[in-house]
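pinning this so it doesn't scroll away 📌
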Amino acid sequence: MNQIVIREAYQTEYPQIGEMMVQVYSSLEGFPQQEEMPEYYEMLLNVGDLTEKEHVSIHVALDDDQIAGAVVFIKEMSDYGSEGAATSVLNACGFRLLAVDHQHQGKGVGKKLVAYCLEKGRVLKRERLIIHSTKPMKLAWAMYEKMGFVRNEALDVSKEEIQVYGFNYYY
C-alpha cells in the first residue's frame, strides 16, 4: 500500500463514492439490503447531495490516486441529517457513512479517515465528535472504541429495519 492521502472529494467523484458506499454497506452481513431500505441506499448512491447543506463535506482517502475510502464530515450537528437527539447537540461535529472500498479493507484506511475527522473537530475546537454505528458494522465499532469513542445511549436511534447506536469522542 502506498501513502494514503486524504482530501476533500471533488464533485466529479461523488457518483463513484456513492457506488462504493452502496457496495460496502450492502455487503455487511446482517445489514438491511436495498429492497429493505430503498431510501437509505438512494441516499448513499447520491451521497453528493448531502453537501448541499452548509456544514457538510465529503472526504476521500486515496491510495495511488484510487479512491480507497470516503467519509461524510459534518461541522455542525444541525446538518447531521439523522433522526434522534444528535442533531440538537451543540459545540459538536460528526461524521457519517464511513466506507472503505473492499480491495483496501484491512489496510488502515478507515482508521486514517477517522483520525482525519477527529483532527478536523479538534481544529474546529468542538467539545465532542458524534457518530453512529450498527451491530453489522462490528469491525468499525471495535475500531471506534479502540480510538476512544464511548457509547452514548441518548443518541441511539431505533428504525424498524435496524438499531443504530450513538457514540461520542470527547476532546
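📌 and the second one:
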Amino acid sequence: MIIVFDLDGTLIDSAPDICAAGNTVLAAEGATPMSLAEATGFIGGGAPLLIERMIAARGLETERHDAMLSRFLELYDDAVHLTQLFPGVEACLEKLAWDGHALGICTNKPESPARAVLDHFGLLPRFGTILGGDTLKVKKPDPVPLTTCIAALGGGRALYVGDSEVDAETAERAGVPFALFTRGYRNTPVDALPHAHAFDDFADLPGVIATYRGVPS
C-alpha cells in the first residue's frame, strides 16, 4: 500500500524555524517580528503565500514580495535547527517500511528545504518520492502533486496523511482517503474537515492503516 505524508505540521514541527527565518526577512524590511503563533497560522500554502501573508500582516509594499521570498529561500535550506519530529514519527516510519508500504512526501514546502530537513533527521532514504511545492507547476490543494506522487510510487491503493485544511482538500480532490493528524497546524475543527481517520499519536498510525486495509491490527 502507498502512504503519502505531508511534512510541516505532520511529520515535523517546523514552525519555530519558519518563524525565525521569516523574522530575519522582516527585520531587513524594518518590520516587527512575528510571534510563533502568528507564523504557524501562515504555514500551509507554500513559501510564496507565506511571504504574501507576512507582507499583508505588516502592511508592507506588495512589490517587496519577490525580494523577500528570495531572501527567505536563501535561509530555508538551513532552517532545521529548531525543528523537531513529532513524537513517534521515526518508529512509525520504520514500522510502515518494515510492513512493506511504499512511502512518499507531498508537501507545499519547496523541495530543496524539504529534502534538507529530512536529511537532517536521517529520514531521506525512507521515502521513494518527494514532491515539494515547487516540483511541479501546481501545488496543493491542486490534486496533481498527490496523484503524481502516488503514480511515482507505483500506483494503487493509497492513503494521504496530513494535518491541515489544504491537505484535506487535496485528498478529497484526488479521491484519496485522508488520515488527519490532529496535533498539526490546522485552524478548523476536526469534525469540519473531511477525513477517513483522525489520530493524535503516530504510535497509532500503523494500526489505523492495518484497519484501513481490513487486516487486524
